[in-house]
Amino acid sequence: MQEVRQIIVPVDFQQHTEELAEYALGLATKLEAKVVFYHVVENVVYYSDFIPTNYSMDREETFVHAQQKMSSLVQDSKNKWMQCSGQVGRGDVVESILEYSQESDLIVMGTHGARGIEKILLGSVAERIIKRAKCPVLIVKMKKK
Asked: pLDDT tens digit string along 73-89?
């Protein structure tokens, strides 16, 4: 079995981010692996719990907001496992995760279990990552809240 030295954990800062981080940190502790939380900012007007003040400032404000959330996630996570860091990227979510994970040994990501029209219209990021990733992908089914 290949040694797992670095785990990439894509996060979206939605309701299950803390649960996913907890799971990934527990796994990393057992494997003695480094954790890198990774978030991608797409070019959208409304993002997570943040609404930009005007459309022209949207991209930069959203990116700064994501960096602040990442900093908070990493700081909280270091209390559980010191070998963690975070990165915020830009662009297409799937393409960016795949590119960023090139040097990783494992991707740990959550799924919300989209069904029906939601899955047809939006697709599944997790499904697309599984199909194209160069390393193993562990999908964690998030509990419904």
From this structure: 999 999 999 999 999 99
